């Protein structure tokens, strides 16, 4: 079947911003819309998918054909890998330095290691605290600026790890600007959970978190910074990020609050003793507390194949957001504080409370086998499809959901596209994070082009991909209960067994004729540790296995995950 251009957006009446389709721009009355946009708006209204925040949701994502038509030239220090019309830039958005009370390395140390281990971008995210808010934000900035000058082939962002009021932590970062310190310092002083009145009620703190996200959006609109992003960190670790809080963060400003860690850092913590810490991957060794959301099962306090329960459970919390049509993306990172097998310690005579930093690290000659972290890029990668090399391009790619993640360099590269069935033209197809709009009854399919690994990872073995799973869920619209965390219509629809003799594989799965809106996401594994998913074998027959505290070697259990693609009727 020839597909024509059924999936392209109608741009005859776009909003002034240039990135919101006319059907979503409620400032345009129905009478001024084209017939196709009137029909589209009517469908979206009926499905409950049109309302607050829709302009930054999956419904406003540009098509692949638009994105692929943009130039891909690099700047003078450009890097990354070209695939599928994008420049894929690997990065880590959760890294600590000597400006964090529980870390020790210099900014340049973390950045050099990240670059050596194959990263193209990093975010420095020292902990929000009294000392950090008072002096740390300003003091770390010259180090970040010097790193940008020294490592011109690495994009180094300044951010911080926010103590979310009433919840866990989050990465907050901004595009480089003469106002980056001002914006981050004002944000931390006004909205960090550790700096709010201890008499605040949970409701007041939840409201403060929403206000903080809205503040970041206001700074972008005021042109203090070109972009600002929020990504919730280790969301299930202590059970205190409730489903309604996650939804409220996203809805506060979907151009800022874009996702959470699909897998936490601290992966070395699972290496069994005596060679390692003998703990839990990600430090996920907690139990419910009075502050925890009571609906979460005990299994949510552990990782599954190194991934957070919210992401790893097919039909779980992440899927419940995607089934609403909410653009909510996953990432991975190192959360590097003190690194496994390092031989240094904080400089002697340090006074963190007075100086907002530790003295430069010194050599000890003692190997840290009990440290829980890897250097940035050593184990986990967040791979972002950018239109070209640059800070804003990375942030735009993250916001658009053009992201896939992996552990241990399980694969080299990936391109995923949803197309009208039979179309194989390179410039067509909707990429990760995108939305394909087609007429009801149109046949669609997903195509996956995966470059398999053929060089050793940083543990010095060549990972082998054994299986790829296609996961599909129905888009059902907004939930009545904002604390819902299941998606009953989501399941694994196809598993591909991969031949180890292949160097590059192309996989296709047909969805049949479109009769209702849906999304698709993909994961892959080395197949070493699997079990039926929490929702049962009929939903996820061979999913990741629950990680055992004390016996969870991260190198022996590798996975990749993609972000979703939506298919919606016109």
Automatic annotation (TrEMBL):
<feature type="domain" description="Polymerase/histidinol phosphatase N-terminal">
    <location>
        <begin position="91"/>
        <end position="166"/>
    </location>
</feature>
<dbReference type="InterPro" id="IPR016195">
    <property type="entry name" value="Pol/histidinol_Pase-like"/>
</dbReference>
<protein>
    <submittedName>
        <fullName>PHP domain-containing protein</fullName>
    </submittedName>
</protein>
<feature type="region of interest" description="Disordered">
    <location>
        <begin position="1"/>
        <end position="37"/>
    </location>
</feature>
<dbReference type="InterPro" id="IPR006311">
    <property type="entry name" value="TAT_signal"/>
</dbReference>
<feature type="compositionally biased region" description="Basic and acidic residues">
    <location>
        <begin position="7"/>
        <end position="16"/>
    </location>
</feature>
<dbReference type="InterPro" id="IPR052018">
    <property type="entry name" value="PHP_domain"/>
</dbReference>
<dbReference type="InterPro" id="IPR003141">
    <property type="entry name" value="Pol/His_phosphatase_N"/>
</dbReference>
């Amino acid at each position: 079947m020839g597909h024509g251009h059924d999936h392209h957006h109608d741009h005859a009446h776009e909003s002034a911003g240039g990135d919101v389709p006319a059907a979503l721009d409620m400032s345009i009355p129905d009478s001024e819309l084209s017939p196709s946009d009137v029909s589209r708006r009517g469908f979206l209204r009926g499905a409950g998918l049109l309302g607050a925040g829709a302009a930054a949701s999956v419904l406003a994502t540009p098509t692949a054909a638009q994105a692929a038509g943009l130039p891909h030239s690099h700047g003078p220090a450009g890097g990354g890998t070209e695939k599928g019309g994008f420049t894929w830039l690997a990065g880590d958005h959760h890294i600590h330095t000597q400006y964090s009370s529980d870390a020790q390395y210099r900014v340049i140390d973390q950045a050099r290691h990240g670059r050596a281990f194959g990263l193209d971008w990093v975010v420095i995210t020292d902990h929000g605290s009294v000392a950090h808010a008072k002096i740390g934000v300003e003091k770390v900035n010259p180090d970040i600026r010097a790193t940008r000058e020294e490592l011109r082939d690495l994009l180094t962002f300044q951010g911080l790890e926010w103590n979310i009021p009433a919840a866990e932590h989050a990465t907050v970062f901004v595009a480089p600007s003469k106002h980056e310190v001002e914006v981050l310092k004002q944000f931390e002083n006004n909205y960090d959970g550790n700096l709010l009145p201890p008499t605040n009620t949970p409701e007041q703190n939840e409201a403060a978190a929403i206000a903080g996200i809205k503040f970041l959006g206001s700074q972008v609109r005021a042109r203090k910074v070109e972009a600002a992003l929020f990504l919730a960190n280790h969301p299930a670790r202590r059970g205190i990020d409730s489903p309604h809080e996650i939804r409220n963060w996203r809805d506060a400003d979907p151009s800022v609050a874009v996702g959470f860690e699909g897998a936490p850092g601290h992966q070395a913590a699972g290496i069994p003793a005596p060679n390692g810490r003998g703990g839990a991957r990600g430090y996920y060794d907690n139990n419910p507390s009075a502050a925890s959301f009571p609906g979460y099962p005990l299994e949510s306090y552990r990782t599954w194949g190194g991934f957070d329960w919210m992401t790893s459970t097919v039909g779980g919390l992440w899927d419940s957001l995607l089934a609403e049509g909410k653009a909510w993306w996953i990432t991975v990172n190192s959360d590097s504080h003190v690194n496994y097998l390092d031989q240094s310690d904080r400089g002697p005579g340090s006074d963190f409370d007075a100086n907002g930093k530790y003295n430069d690290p010194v050599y000890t000659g003692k190997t840290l086998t009990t440290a829980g972290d890897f250097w940035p890029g050593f184990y986990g990668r967040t791979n972002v499809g950018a239109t070209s090399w640059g800070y804003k391009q990375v942030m735009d790619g993250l916001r658009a959901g053009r992201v896939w993640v992996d552990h241990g360099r399980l694969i080299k590269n990936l391109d995923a596209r949803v197309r009208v069935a039979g179309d194989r033209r390179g410039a067509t197809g909707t990429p990760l994070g995108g939305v394909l709009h087609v007429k009801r009854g149109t046949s669609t399919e997903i195509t996956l082009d995966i470059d398999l690994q053929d060089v050793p990872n940083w543990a010095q073995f060549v990972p082998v991909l054994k299986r790829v799973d296609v996961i599909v869920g129905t888009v059902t619209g907004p939930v009545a209960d904002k604390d819902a965390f299941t998606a009953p219509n989501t399941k694994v629809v196809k598993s591909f067994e991969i031949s180890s003799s292949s160097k590059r594989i192309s996989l296709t799965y047909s969805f049949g004729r479109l009769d209702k809106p849906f999304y698709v996401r993909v994961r892959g594994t080395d197949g070493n540790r699997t079990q039926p998913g929490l929702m049962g074998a009929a939903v996820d027959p061979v999913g990741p296995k629950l990680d055992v505290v004390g016996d969870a070697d991260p190198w022996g259990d590798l996975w990749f995950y993609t972000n979703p693609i939506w298919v919606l009727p016109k």
